[in-house]
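Sample intake sheet
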Amino acid sequence: MNTVKRYLGILWMAIAVLAYIVLLKTAYHQISIKPTNDTIMQWSIFAIIFFPIAIGFVLFGWLALKGAYDKLPVSSDEIED
């Protein structure tokens, strides 16, 4: 199961990067079709807000790849301080 978690970590990182690339391409395409202030503002906000989300997905995938989720606690008594 730990091997599956590590491979899924790679998948999470790839999905995050690809999703952000698709978002930027779509933003560029939409802005080039209708270059008004409203469109530029809308797509800029989308790109800015999704950037930390994509970074979070990459971080989650990186931790999964490195094995941070190999041993998960079953109860709160197993959590180390």
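Comment: The longest helix spans residues 2-33. Residues 24 and 68 are 31 Å apart (CA to CA).
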